[in-house]
Amino acid sequence: MSTKVAIIASNGGLFDAYKVFNIATASAATDAEVAIFFTFEGLNLIHKQAHHQLPLPAGREQIAEGFKNANIPSIPELVAMAQELGVKIIACQMTMDVMNLKKEDFIDGIEVGGAVTFLDFAKDANVSLTF
């Protein structure tokens, strides 16, 4: 049986992005089928402009330098890696409607869908995570 990893990204900070994309890319690199459902603030992680400047928690600004010094890929690089590895990226239609966002506001290659779209993928997932 192959592994399926279902991830919900509902928070929009830099640490959240690293958690989501680290797990997603690591899973996909081990041949797992991976989907991420981005909702509410989590949409920042795939927004064309926002994902380039995600906020750090207050008092943790020095961590940004640590990421750079440790040669950790940037969030845009991790997003590209996830897409290259076949990670399915789903933006929540309902949240987009509430926030008056369009598909064009997000990185290329995403799918727009509702909760049912994600649940159809997640219903038989071996691993389900929320960040």
UniProtKB/TrEMBL annotation:
Domain of life from the UniProt record: Bacteria
Pfam families cross-referenced by the UniProt entry: DrsE_2
InterPro entries from the UniProt entry: DsrE2-like (IPR032836), DsrEFH-like (IPR027396)
PANTHER family linked to this entry: CONSERVED WITHIN P. AEROPHILUM, PEROXIREDOXIN FAMILY PROTEIN
Name this polypeptide is given: DsrE/DsrF/DrsH-like family protein
Source organism (scientific name): Cohnella ginsengisoli
